[in-house]
Amino acid sequence: MDAQLKKGVLELCLLQCLSGEPKYGYDIIQTMRNCFPDVTESTFYAILRRLNKEGSADTFQGSESNGPVRKYYRLTEDGRERLAQMAADWRKLRIILEKMGIS
User: Fold this and answer.
1) Tens-digit pLDDT profile for residues 48-61
2) Are 72 and 48 spatial neighbours (Cβ–Cβ below 8 Å)?
3) What phi and psi values does residue 94 have, to the nearest 5 degrees?
């Protein structure tokens, strides 16, 4: 898959993954790797850091487990708006591709 196309798809999928309850970073990565086995953890974490820096995701530390304190991610209101816009753009793109005979 083209790198630029994959980057956008990964961002959309990460936003969707964060749209429910807050999630621990490792759980997010495991979910994403099931769908994108060829993508490295560092790629996912880079996108998560960028989403946080841009204000689409927020992070917080959860309660301690038997190891280090866990970092959790959740969508901000800006992130929810971004997800809605990206999902709408994706639906429009699918319609265009179908009209072009690409399925």
Assistant:
1) 999 999 999 999 99
2) no
3) -60, -40
